[in-house]
Amino acid sequence: MQELSQADFRCEMKQQIVPMIITWTRRIPQEEPEAENFLLYIMQGQDMLDSIKGKEFMGRIESLRGLFPTQSVVLMIYGLKDCFRKSTRDVSRFDIEMALVEAQILHNCNHRLLESPADLAATVIQFCKSIAEGPFKKGEIEKALTEDCYFSNNSKDNVKIQNGVGYSRLWQEHLIKFPHVTLEVAQAISTEYPMPHLLMDALQTSADPENLLTNIPVRRSGGPLATQRKVGQELSKKIHKLYTTENPEEIL
To answer: Any idea what DSSP says for residue 148?
Structure first.
């Protein structure tokens, strides 16, 4: 509670239909409080070992999912490592792993293993921050999916497309993804074929498509001492393969 208060999150203790759970409510001024779609279920390590031994673990998870069918549930297992070390090994490590895998696959219940109060507090704070920022991040994703901002991002390393400006740089950034392709090589190819569809058209009509880009000159630097080389046969073949193969497992 103290760590949450210090992190500027409001929290309160109240009785729930299931003990040892944490839920969130979003409060916006002049609006009705809205329950968030996340739930943390804290289970003591010894409690988990006993429930697995008694074949009750999956039943408890099923019951929890039945009470909260629309919630994203994360199981917070506290002190399992210490309890397992001190146990008589009626439950094996394999039994624990199988129980957690079944909970995740059958009931979409993820888990976190925590061994100290500090771990528990840090994890809860992490969830608080993530849930608090949820609407903002969702808005950013929706904004990025619009036509005008499809390639836009706040990161300086991403290419922003605005009013038709930026496609050339985006094309060059795409070419740079090939191993050993420098900016100079990408600029040389984009100068010859300013848009991807122009390159694809040329590949379809060329008599020797694999070597279409081989002899494109690449200027290594500016000034009177600048040297030139060519794109080369190897890269030309890789680009040809990328744009013409119909095999999704093709290795470039």
So the answer is: G
- Residues 244 and 205: beta-carbon distance below 8 Å: no
CA–CA dist 221, 225 (Å, integer): 8
Instruction: List the chain residues with pLDDT less than 70.
Output: 1-8, 144-162, 164, 220-227, 252
- Please enumerate in sequence order all residues whose Cβ is within 8 A of that of 243, keeping only pairs 6 or more positions apart, or say none: 196, 199, 200, 203
Residue entry with tokens 């990025």: 144
Tell me the sheet residues that pair with 46.
none
Give the strand pairing for 110-114 and 72-78: parallel
Q: What is the pLDDT of residue 149?
A: 47
Residue 169, CA distances (Å) to 160, 174, 176, 184, 201 in order: 9, 9, 10, 12, 20
Closest to 162 (Cα-Cα) out of 176, 170, 45, 78:
170
Domain 154-244: CATH class, spelled out: mainly alpha
248 contact partners, CB below 8 Å, separation of at least 6: none
Pick 2-146's CATH classification: 3.40.50.300, 3.40.50.10130, 3.40.47.10, 3.30.360.10.
3.40.50.10130
Specify the pLDDT at position 148: 52
Could you tell me where the DSSP H helices lie in the chain? 2-6, 45-53, 57-67, 80-86, 93-107, 117-132, 134-144, 167-176, 183-192, 196-205, 233-244
Cα–Cα distance for residue pair 59/197, rounded to 1 Å: 57
Residue 41 CA to residue 114 CA, distance in Å, equals: 12
Label the pairing between strands 228-230 and 110-114: unpaired
Per-residue model confidence (pLDDT) at position 153: 47
The tally of CA atoms less than 13 A away on the side-chain side of residue 97 is 3
